[in-house]
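Question (not urgent): is this output format expected?
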Amino acid sequence: MSPDQPKRFPALPAQEALTVEFKSDRKRLSDDELVEALVCLANTDGGELWLGVEDDGTPTGLHETHQNLTGLPGLVAARTSPSLSVTVEAITLAGHQLARIRVGQAASEVATTAGKYLRRRLKPDGTPECVALLPHERSSRASRFGLVDASAQAVAGAVLSDLDPLERERLRQTVEQYGGDRVLLDLDDEAMDGALGFTTRNATGERVPTLTGLLVIGRENALRDKVPTHEFAFQVLAREAVAFNEFRRYPLLKALDWLETNFRPYNPEKEIQVGLFRVPVPKVDMGAFREALANALVHRDYHRLSAVHVRLDDEGLTISNPGGLVEGVTLSNLLTTEPRPRNRALADAMKRIGVVERSGRGVDKIYRGMLRFGRPEPDYSRTDDNSVILRLATVAADEVFLQWLVEQEGRQSGTPLPIDSLIALAALREHKRLNAEELALHIQRDSTRARRTLEQLLEAGLVEAHGNTRSRSYTLSVDMYHAKGDKLAYTRQVGFSQVQQPEMVLNYVRQHGRIQRSEVMALCHLSENQAKALLQRLKNDGRLAQHGVRRWTFYTLGENQSL
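Got this back:
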């Protein structure tokens, strides 16, 4: 920016939000109130404080004692622990001098030097407020940032007799059933407790149960008394009538068995014939169900007094758990981010037992269980800071798509398609035509990786490409449309054939009098060389006449334009 150009100031937000705070300074905002407001923002999502702005968004300016903002960052750092770093910007708006103070989200909770821990939240009417950050909320926040693993800590008042021998036996059976770490089967109880983090040593050296130990093999009465936040519910709603509604506090392995047993009667299954094999087609894929259920129970926030809900209704299966996504995981990187368990010790134990995906890519398994049957992608869109909500649609399976996939996998020695390839095929099935940039949003990767995935599918004969490299788009192969018996849909999606393109060009000239090569490229989605060849062919046939040379060339109807 040159010295002569006016400086552009950021626009004043229309209203307060979770990350935006307005503070009036007409009567001089006290230092304590200013610091507390910044601590609130830092302990939530970070944001900006506009000093000199009324609650309704009206700028009224800074008090005369705040005209010099130089020492403000030092004041904030001196009155917070650990010291909070802020950036301050002086802004003139509507004739008033304001201060825009920006603060990032703090990794560890921040307090004022007076000992106040505060956080920001939204009231029912959508306006923000600053409230106390309570001890259990501080622990929950530390878990979300990966600073503390609550599942590895001893549970107050718990003793070894709170661990249930029957649940130990269930654990051994589960290892065998789900292909867990068979080394565990050769260990005695004490060695197994140590290997799976079920116990730890207290200050006197005694072995005591951890939260992981109680959750996996604890007695039900011990869980009820010493881990009151652990609870789950299974509900079935049919046309808004309650067909099943039960709450339980079973240890996790028993909980998974109980939920699966009660879910199966509501999960009818049919079979289709694919070659020599019969392929089951359930209402909900059981692999996806188990993985989603285990994720909800393992990764929930055990500091929050709320239950995991498993709800089946007429439109789908919803699984929700208290506690939002952990730091670093968002809805836009669920498929690609590295595993970040909230309860690391519990997650590690369940992986070794074999209950959850050992690679940490359980979300892939949930996606595969939906897309393989031609159903919509898993829906996490209702997830917020307080809960993770997964919706699995129970619409009818696309049996032709499933049969086509099984046949393709059969040609590859039964090897399942990579998850990116499966997502690409499912997206093409739903949207009919995609380019690399559009697919990148579905697989949560960059357009280069998306283009590579599409080209691999093209080489395998599963998709077809249309257009040149820059504007290339893709559709499912003709085999898929033939399998569905929908040849018209294939023709519509492929677009203008070599027979249709000349007529499109001629119609354009009839309507507009003339056409240039660039217009042919845009009209028929052709490369420069393809457009040049098409125009030359029409010229040779006498249907177009050329005028001008090089960049000024254009074409009009020729003598044989009616042919």
